[in-house]
Amino acid sequence: MKKTIYTSLLATSLFTALPLNGQSFNQVNSGAQEKLESALEELAAKQEAVAKEKIPMAQKLNRLESEVGNLRSELRRLERLRDSRDLNLSALENEIEARRDEIDYAKNLLVEFINNQTASSDASERQLYEGAFLEILNSTSTIEGDDEQAASEAIEQLVGGVELGLERLNTLVGGHTFEGNAVLPDGNFETGKFVLFGPVTYFASSSGSMAGLTVQGDSGEPTLIELSRSFGGMSESILVGGGTLPLDPTLGKALALETTKDTLVEHIQKGGFWIYPILSIAVISLIIAIFKLFELSNIKRIPKDKFVTILTSIQEGKHEAALKEARSLSGDGQELVTKAIQNIGHGRDLIEQSMEEVLMKMQPKVERLISIVWITAATAPLLGLLGTVTGIITTFKLLTIFGSGDPKALGGGISEALITTEFGLIVAIPSLILHAFLHRKAKAIENEFEGDAMTLLNGILRAEKK
After folding, report:
1. CA distance 299 to 235
2. Which label site among 99, 237, 322, 354 has the fewest CB atoms less than 10 Å from its CB?
3. Which residues, 6+ apart, have CB-to-CB distance to 422 below 8 Å?
4. pTM of the entire predicted model
């Protein structure tokens, strides 16, 4: 390596020292030698300087490489620490979220307990607890924020509501008495004393004038069902706190069933709009049936004795006497017999046609208006079915809007819808019976007149043969 460097320097020196103007080779050689020596000295100095700098530079390089390795180790340690902290932070966030879910679950349980206390309480108890429960629930719903303080405040208030509910349950053990107001049968409020004993609630007015059991009325207030007339001393037992009280072994179901009974007017009003057309045609049908019954009863028939007298006169050839006797009759029978007698001697066909004409004129009079009763019997069930379908459609619309949370409301709506069908059948069955009776009576009258006409025709024919 050094030989190559020396050779290169020498060649360079020789070429740079070539004479351009005819200098001698010796001069060139001498100058080149001097330059070579100078270059060698300079090279040696450079090599010495490089040798002196090489060791410190190597030491510095080793130190820097060591520092880089340390820094890389520190970096890996910090990265592991960062990853560990990220994992711990994620686990902590998950833990916080789980604790929040537990707090929300606990709050929901407490709210559900308070709502159950309100729902299961008697109508009379709501005067004592409903306001407090609603205040707790409303104050809890107004607390804003998801921090620990807001959750703590909400839990504290809900725990107060739970304590109030437990206090209520403890007071019910063995019976509970308190002052309050109840709705009397006349609709007025009266202050008195309540006695809760199991599922039964007793009430006596402060004056002692009324006492009995209370049930939840339509307004949500406790409504009195008076029993003091049937059970003497009931007011005193409630007000004084000692004595005997009536007990319902059906747990109030028999009493509740009794209270659901409606008057006829209330029952009709629950039927809705279509109940009124049904009742209207029922009234019309009844009036027509009564009128028709009187009309059919007042139709004048031919008396048997006079009919025998007329036939006897015809047999004896006393046509004028028979005609005079016929004119003394009243009603449709007079025209029937008169026409037959006036056509004696004109042939059987004319006599028969004259009497048939009278019978045909009489038939519409006898059968008129009876068809309206039949129409009522056929229409009333259809109107009832229409009212039922309309009521059920309305019920299912309400079910779609408000849901099926209360099956009692759904059952009540369907039962009210069926009221129109009930009244439709109530109207149709008597109408059908009345139609059958009136139609049979009308046919009996027609058959009787036809029989009389046939008897009269045969009598005339026998007389003519003689």
Report:
1. 67
2. 99
3. 384
4. 0.49
